[in-house]
Amino acid sequence: MELQDMDNTAGNHETKILLGRPSCKPESYDYILVGKKIDNEEAETFKKQKAFIEELKAKNFDVKVVCRENKDGDKLFYGIRAPEDIFEKYRYLLKVSDSCNGSRELQGDVLLSTRIRIVHFVLHNTFIKTGEKLSELMKRGVFETKFCLHEKNEQKTLTSKWARWTASFRRQPISDVRDYFGEKVALYYVWLGLYTTLLIPAATLGIIVFLYGMAFFETSPLIKEVCEADTIMCPLCDKKCKVWQLSDTCTYAKVSHLFDNEGTVAFAMFMAVWATVFLELWRRQRAVHVSGWNVSEWDEDEEELILGMVNDPRYSPKKYEQSCLRSTVVLILVTLMLMLIIGLAQALVIFRVAATGLLSEGSSQFMKDNANTFAVIMGAVLHYLTIIIMTKVNRRVALLLCKIEKTRSFVTTERSFTVKMFTFQFFTLFSSLFYVAFFLGRINGYPGKYSRISGKWRLEECHPTGCLTDLFIQMAIVMVLKQIINNIFEFIVPWISGVLKNKQTKELSDGALHCKKDCSRMEKGPCDNCKLIDWLSNYNLKDVNVFSVFNEFIEMIIQFSFTTIFVAAFPLAPLLALFNNVIEIRLDAIKMVSLERRLIANKTNNIGMWDRVLEVIGVLAVIANGLVIGITSDFIPRLVYRYHYGPCATGEATDVHCMTGYINHSLSTAYMSNEAVRRDFEPHQLVTYNGLIITHCRYKDYRNDVNYELTSQFWLVLGARFAFVILFEHIVLIFKFIAAWLLPDCPLQVKNSRLEDKFSRLREELVSFSNKGAEDETDGSTKA
Predict the structure, then answer these.
(1) Per UniProt, what is one GO molecular function of this protein (predicted)?
(2) Which residue, 428, 430, 429, 404, is CA-closest to 417?
(3) How far apart are CA 436 and CA 467, in angstroms?
(4) Are 210 and 576 a contacting pair, CB within 8 Å?
(5) How buried is 133 (Cβ within 10 angstroms: 0-12 exposed, 13-18 middle, 19+ buried)?
(6) What is the rounded distance in angstroms from the CA atom of residue 342 to the CA atom of residue 321?
(7) Cα separation of 669 and 246, whole Å?
(8) DSSP code at position 718
(9) Residue 367, exposed/middle/buried by CB under 10 A (0-12, 13-18, 19+)?
């Protein structure tokens, strides 16, 4: 490989340099721009490249240009270093601003992370004469990419303390992370660390609930009744499905009992309160850190104004605007997008219905007996594939809607994008789960009057032991696949890509001659060979963008939603989340430190819109878990049976379990002598696998066997369900309010620290003012 050092002033003067690999520390540059070398000086790309570099030079930026020659085409690497006066202006404006509050930029030298943030702003707000800025030039191919350089020593420090698998159970060095990546990334790891820590008690209780279900696995009268029943059940689908034995689903009944038992209620209440406790503890933790970092009073608008004036003295801030027309258009488009997502959820319903019918006529008896379960599993896998596709679609649509809104700044755009992207993702992931939880088996009708989609496909039914297992299967498959596959792609893909690229660079470097002089002894700093080796090593890393931290956040927020909203159906969800997060923290750390280009160290004092999103999830967790226990599970019907219809209702039975006969009591009977019932089934569907022709079959519902009207028991159970949901939500909300009251957002220690800090600064100003007044009096006396 050959390099050419292109003199900044000579234009066409070129000197060929052979690339060596001396052990020297490359000279520090704030930013690197990469573009193709254009030999035709009349080309539009060449002119725009030159114009942008000239604009930077006009701002007194130092630009070093090094050319890399290879068979894929020559590339120009522009090393950019900002003048010191830019940082002095920044520090001065911080000093006179309202949000300074002892900012670290005023103490000592400006950190490279701060320099990078300032230079990043300047580069993205530098315009050429055609009115184009860097982002637009990159879209037009004028520049290929841009990145800032990793610091080798800091990389090694972070790797030894944090970004390696052996540090998985060490305390995170948040201060070091903040110094290198900025407050935004540091707060993400503070949040993720606290979330992971608080998952430990949640996961422990989830395991206890699971073990509680296993403890009564063999002795449960409900399981025994299903496994020993000789009950003939009605066909589950049209034409192809036959009548079936309830005892064929013995395994399904056992699995249902693991997740649908009395312990689930207490666990759901605990998790609803846990979400509030976590949010309050997070806010306290955030307050402690931002106070320690002296960014409590930091203001994003003031930061933008300071950077704007540092970049251009003629800068004028963009005003806040609102257009009712644009807002209406965005609202309509969001509604249409949500309708599309819900439509996809309905398509999954049709798929499961069709799959149940096809599996029921298969050659395998096991497949026939568990056709509905296999259909749910296949639907869950298809749901996950839909999530992968729709995630990309949702991102594009959300960005398009932000463009239509014409948001004022990047921070405003990020907030708007966060709300839209989370809303789309939430509906994409949870629309199908909401159907399974609250509609499956409740709108399917009954023999003689089944509900059908477009009059063709009969809707699914729940197992006689309840619908909670269907929800569990759907959640478990989506959650496990999403976490495992996401982690594989997040780590393996950039690792393999980096290995291949670095191998090519190493082969080219080894083939070149070593530098003739030791760069570490050169007064002017390292040679161009050394610079380019470092630039290439950073260039070969995976690219990052302004939404890199957003991508990590939304992944964890979606997981948090799974862990809290439908946790009543999946008590082991916190355990899976805990295992994933222990890996996720190190995985993200290794990615950011070693596998990805350096992130811009953005300053902030909160996690933005995610805080409000967490509040919404906490409220949804209370509502959803109350509905899951009251509506989805069979907890309330079992309770009503135990105290109103069962053998213990009168208080006389002593040698019989109180739930004996529940399954039979919860089933209704359809007689084939009824013409409407007979029309719903084909003759061959009414023949058992033993060749017997049945005269009646059972189905899960509370209806009489004369006119198939709902019985009084149905209304009693329905009333009890709604009463439980209201009672559950009010009790949990009371506990949430108590938890929020006992755990204020800001600790007293932080409040007192801020008070003392303000007092100290005001006292210093007063002393300074008094001294100045005394000096003025002395000068006046001397002159007199």
Answers:
(1) chloride channel activity
(2) 404
(3) 8
(4) no
(5) middle
(6) 33
(7) 14
(8) H
(9) middle
Chain-centroid distance of CA 399 in Å reads 17
DSSP 249: G
Residue in this structure with the two tokens 């969001």, named with its chain if needed:
334
- Read off the tokens for 539: 């260039």
CA-to-CA distance for 222 and 253, rounded, in angstroms? Answer: 8
Q: Which tens digit of pLDDT belongs to each residue from 418-464?
A: 999 999 999 998 888 888 888 887 888 889 888 887 777 788 777 77
Identify the residue whose tokens are 């003295």.
313
Please identify every stretch of the chain with a pLDDT value under 50, giving residue numbers as ranges: 1-26, 507-508, 510-524
772 exposure class (CB count in 10 Å sphere: 0-12, 13-18, 19+): exposed
Residue 331's alpha-carbon distances to 231, 328, 359, 406, in angstroms, are 52, 5, 42, 14
- How many helices (H) and strands (E) the chain has is answered by 25, 14
Angle at the Cα of 692 from the Cα atoms of 688 and 694, rounded to 5 degrees: 80
How remote is the C-alpha of 206 from its chain's centroid? 22
Q: What are φ and ψ of residue 43, in 5° steps?
A: -70, 145
Under the phi-then-psi rule, with left for phi > 0, alpha for psi from -120 to 50, and beta for the rest, what region is 60? Answer: left
Q: Which residues, 6 or more positions from 60, have their beta carbon under 8 angstroms from its beta carbon?
A: 83, 85
What one-character-per-residue DSSP string does 307-330 give? HHHHH-TT--PPPP---HHHHHHH
Per-residue pLDDT tens over the stretch 684-718: 888 888 888 889 999 988 999 888 899 999 999 99
Q: Look at the block and give the residue holding tokens 């020559």.
A: 74
pLDDT tens sequence across 46-59: 899 999 999 999 99
Task: Report residue 667 as tokens.
Answer: 């089933």
Query: Are 629 and 265 within 8 A, CB to CB?
Result: yes
pLDDT at 187: 94
Phi, psi angle pair for 142, to nearest 5° = -65, -45
Strand 62-69 and strand 2-6: the pairing is antiparallel
